[in-house]
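Folding Task

Wanted — backbone structure
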Amino acid sequence: MSAAEQLDLTIGVLGQQLPLKSQCIRWRDGHRSVLPAVYDDSDLNHNLCDTLDIPFINFISSLQSSNANSEHVVHFRNEMLTAPREADVTCIAEVVGHALSKNMCVLFHGVAHKPPANGLTGDYLDVTFGISPDQPVSIHDMRRRCHDYMSPTFSGSIRGFLDSMNNPKDIQCILDIPLAHVTLPDELRELDHGLIHGWNQTTHKVPIASKVHSENFTVKGWGLLHHAGFVTYPHHDAEGTLTWVRMETGVKFWVIFWLKSGVSDRSRLQELSMRLSHFRGNIRWIQENCAGEVITLVPGDLLLLPPATVHAVYTPVASFSTGGHFYHYSCMHLTELARYIDAEVGDISTNQALNHALETLRRMVIAVPYLSPRIHLQTRSLLSLCTMAMKPAQYYAMAGSPSSIENTETAEPSAAIAEVISEYLGVVKRATAGDILYRGDQFHAGKQVDRNAFSKVLQKSLRL
């Protein structure tokens, strides 16, 4: 395939998966793709996507394309994952964790993945990932979303979704296909501090006695399955998680947003989320105040997003990707920021409701006194973790479930540890955690914690 053909994403889509009369668009990186088109049978001349979807795609297609010189995305080749680790060289997981803590996305090119031999089929999903063709799923439909934004889904199956993939009348996607067995590459698995430290290292000290929500584990791995032409509007991922996505087949234009001013106070960041979530009514403000970058994901690309990253996605060809959510000690300041915004405007700032955060965060607090000295801790990030563990109601997301803030056996021990840590970090009667967290650069993780001095305080106060 020639270079020009590789950039032409209309081949096999126009007239086959999307209507022949659909418009096409050119992206800043040279790709050409088809714009979405869905019609009601009562009016075949009125494209329902003309009102919001196409204007939004036109906007994001004009944004700069991410490259190795980006100030917001760190680009790595796969060799960074596979290179032999030297004893005196920082491991790649630490390098990635540091970048994520600075609110930077990380993109690996050319990682091992599982492309289909004969296209995106039911057999490919079944044999390669264990996804049954008859698995019941919730299907998002763009026609339904155009008519009722709050009710865009219907129940169906993987087989039915794939059967409609080549029907130009339908544009659909399936989010969060459970794939708990799918993980990050081995070299990056240690990034999941919530699982490795929060869960693996605390159940002896605090045995599990209460009912544990399955999302504590099922969000670790999932699949995304899309028809050509599906657009996902701006949002950040729920409960302040970090996110990883690996393209298995297809293409995605993954767009990240930030304020042109570079301001990072939480009121302006909350406004950014609110404005972008209502694109049609805020076009002028967005054009004047919002900057963005398009990350083009192709098979073998692995993208990691820090918490609170506002992003949107356009899928120009039928695609399947795997991914998951996780928590990291050095990113807790960003997790706190995202959950703070969710508590204020969570009905519009994120695209799903999860119920797993509190139990994982509290176990991460319980694990702190026992962490290996090689785990880096920062003051603002650590205080953010403690505050979320001690004040769950303050981070109760709009449209969330009351069960998400219920106390369990982790409440008391995590509070005892969090209080000692908070006092060590400067929280007193005249200086609350909010006084410290809500001021300054919200993207800064804080100063490095002196682990030796910190360990002595914990041992003395907690009698470890």
Observations:
- The CA atoms of residues 98 and 355 lie 27 Å apart.
- The mean pLDDT is 92.
- The chain is about 30% helix and 20% strand.
- The longest strand covers residues 242-249.
